[in-house]
Write a structure and sequence with these properties.
591 residues, alpha/beta, Rossmann fold, 22 helices, globular
């Protein structure tokens, strides 16, 4: 059988440097899913971009061939030797690509509906009405609860996970012969990830589409791939059928990836010791409603991001908030830091020390805000966006101290160097720009910048979601070490339950702005009571080919609250009360 895509001896380099991809070969058969696995910088993405010839200008394809045998056209072409005009007919039509960073791939000036429908207008000769109907159907299939609203929205009005869903819809709407998915589910919560993976499989069975899956998540590989190619430093380390590679990895590098993969432990860890009641942050009855314009003469729409949120972060401990994209997790983080005011009636209290009078974050004056900002800092989800590309690392790290007028210039520089050492980087890197660092190193820089003011509270918004497993392990170790060393308190936002199971002392599960279950991880993960919590746990992919994701259980818990069992059912924000079913274990249910 002729391969749909055949990559042979591909080598790519920059300038006069040695190749970043060297002698890479792999084949993709029609209808097959091939997983390209490896750490950040291993050459996975640049190898896939070479297929569509969308490499950086400085990149040189030094050797190799990439042949594509279209079943629709009945012809075989070498994509590296095709003229640009011929390639335009291939891109988006026969071969589509889902990019890893949707905010950089989507136009901020055009509505999502117009961007996604463009491929149908260009390649499928559809009129605007048919294209819109097809796009709305695809939006619904990738998990958007209100496809019509998404059609009218701009990318900056969507959360990171929702933008990724839109990118997936754009790549899949034309039903290509080959889908190249570059970390397609990295920014997605586990339930949406499970639904998207199920959708890709469904489309494969319907259309015979082949998939190249670029990922560092071995759980996703176990659920999706028939073949696996493991890459490191631009070379292929191991290749073979997924079952053979996952069950008995032969190369030391593949074994190392498995060792670093986070998983929810099969056996509950010993119960964490009881702590004294010493809250550093309290949110009481907090609600947040946004008014969204509807356009024309239509009435503006009210969006409830958070409803009756009650959370307490104990001093020196970690409270994790988990839930799907758009559930209100990041809104909670912004409210906690005073970046957004809560609706009338809610209270947010902060105590810098155990004996300090509570500071009302929702009612701060200018002096209070400056003092509070020294004591509470945030680590953002995307370090590339949160670090200025025009500022050297030294400037980025000393800037907070300059704003708060702390120390002399030499002392600020020394403090910046010390913070780099804390996060495992060399002080000689102070003169570099952010683009010279890998994703994991940029996340370390973000953490170092947040620590320069010696805060007592750190809000971490998905700090490991975009990192490969080995770097994720390093960042988690770093956060744990810093917490234990200086007694930091964390409000930790995440959709990755394996990460939360490791780092959290308390877990709150959010769904559509409402906390549906709250308990210590040792209780929550081994005795989940709410159907949505059960769905989150069932959707967590495991690097075991014999334990696929139970999509039926995921769809039940992640579906509409009106479809849940009677004890948990509610509509909108008219939810039952959060009830303590056992000591420390609260569930939103009718009793």
């Amino acid at each position: 059988m002729t391969p749909l895509l055949n990559v042979q001896d591909l080598s790519i380099g920059f300038g006069t440097e040695k190749p970043v991809v060297q002698d890479v070969s792999f084949q993709v058969m029609p209808g097959e899913t091939l997983a390209l696995v490896g750490e950040s910088g291993s050459g996975k993405t640049i190898s896939c971009r070479a297929v569509l010839r969308i490499l950086p200008e400085a990149a040189q394809i030094r050797s190799g061939s990439i042949t594509f045998s279209s079943t629709q056209q009945g012809s075989t072409v070498d994509l590296l030797r095709q003229p640009e005009r011929a390639l335009r007919k291939v891109r988006g039509n026969h071969i589509s690509m889902i990019f890893q960073e949707p905010m950089r791939s989507l136009s901020p000036l055009h509505r999502l509906g117009d961007q996604v429908s463009e491929v149908l207008l260009l390649h499928r000769d559809m009129n605007a009405a048919r294209a819109k109907a097809s796009v709305l159907e695809t939006f619904e299939r990738v998990g958007f609860p209100d496809p019509a609203r998404v059609w009218r929205s701009y990318p900056f009005e969507m959360s990171g996970g929702m933008r990724q869903r839109a990118m997936i819809a754009m790549a899949m709407v034309a039903k290509p012969e080959l889908l190249i998915a570059d970390e397609p589910t990295t920014a997605l919560d586990v339930t949406t990830q499970a639904q998207v993976l199920g959708l890709i499989k469904e489309l494969q069975s319907e259309t015979g589409m082949a998939v190249i899956l670029v990922t560092h998540d071995l759980g996703v590989v176990a659920n999706m791939a028939e073949s696996v190619v493991v890459m490191n430093k631009g070379r292929v380390m191991e290749r073979g059928p997924a079952e053979a590679v996952l069950s008995d990895p032969a190369h030391g590098y593949t074994q190392k990836l498995f060792a670093a993969a986070p998983m929810i432990p099969q056996v509950a860890a010993p119960a964490r010791p009881e702590t004294n009641d010493d809250p550093i942050l309290q949110m009481r009855g907090v609600c947040k409603t946004y008014t969204m314009r509807a356009g024309g003469w239509r009435k503006p729409t009210l969006i409830t991001a958070c409803h009756e949120v009650n959370l307490t972060v104990q001093r020196g401990k970690t409270l994790a908030v988990v839930g799907e994209s758009g559930s209100g997790k990041t809104t909670c983080a912004r409210l906690a830091l005073g970046a957004e005011p809560p609706d009338q009636g809610g209270e947010i209290l902060f105590r810098a020390t155990a004996d300090a009078a509570p500071l009302k974050i929702h009612d701060m004056n200018a002096e209070d805000r400056i003092r509070f900002q020294r004591q509470a800092q945030m680590v953002f989800q995307d370090p590339y966006s949160s670090l200025s590309p025009r500022m050297r690392v030294g400037q980025a790290l000393t800037e907070p101290m300059e704003i708060h007028d702390l120390g002399r210039k030499s002392e600020r520089r020394e403090k910046a160097a010390e913070m780099l050492r804390w996060v495992g980087l060399d002080p000689s890197m102070l003169s570099r720009y952010p683009h010279a660092f890998s994703g994991g190193q940029r996340q370390r820089l973000s953490i170092a910048r947040a620590l320069t003011l010696d805060p007592v509270l750190l809000v971490c918004d998905e700090p490991t979601s975009a990192l490969d497993v080995s770097v994720q392990e390093q960042i988690l170790c770093l956060l744990e070490d810093i917490r234990d060393r200086i007694g930091l308190s964390y409000l930790f936002i995440s959709h990755d339950l394996a990460v939360v199971a490791r780092i959290a002392d308390e877990v709150a599960v959010m769904r559509q702005g409402v906390i549906v279950e709250q308990a210590p991880p040792d209780t929550l993960f081994y005795n989940p009571r709410h159907p949505y919590t059960c769905a989150l746990i069932a959707a967590q992919p495991e690097p075991d080919i014999s334990r696929p994701i139970n999509l039926e259980l995921v769809s039940k818990g992640a579906g509409s609250p009106a479809t849940w069992p009677e004890a948990f059912r509610f509509e909108g924000v008219a939810a039952p009360a959060l009830t303590e079913l056992e000591p420390g274990h609260k569930v939103r249910c009718h009793v």
